[in-house]
Amino acid sequence: MSNNFELLLLIHLFTTIFMTGLCWFVQIVHYPLFRAMKLEDVPQYEQKNKVTGYITVTVMTVELITGLVLLYEQLELLYILNIVLLAIIWLSTAIYQVPMHLKLMIVASNETISKLIRTNWIRTLAWSIRSGILIVILWGLL
Known about the structure:
With 142 residues, this protein is mainly alpha-helical. It has one domain (3-141). Helix content is 87%, strand content 0%. The chain is built from 5 helices and no strands. The radius of gyration is 17 Å and the shape is elongated. The N and C termini lie close together (11 Å).
């Protein structure tokens, strides 16, 4: 393995572990706090909180690009599983999380908040599994 490949793997691992930790925080702390707010306060909070998207989209994009390059360089089962799970994360984000956040910016409901929490488990578990896969890959290179 070249030094460039190893650096790319470390960047990819870092972004994945960062997003895994962030997703667990969101799942266990951030999203459930919506239930502690008055429903009429949620849209204003969501408007102010959209800055979070700039951070997550940036890290997720770096994660996607590095993951695809790693897959191109190393077409093996663990790298394929890594990208399949990453695709699931991106699809879940596009199909569930983003539309629900946009909806909560306009009008909040307990149903939307519950659905947001419930569907975010897809991303939380996928990122957790990916972290494990990437640690196994790194361990194999040591």
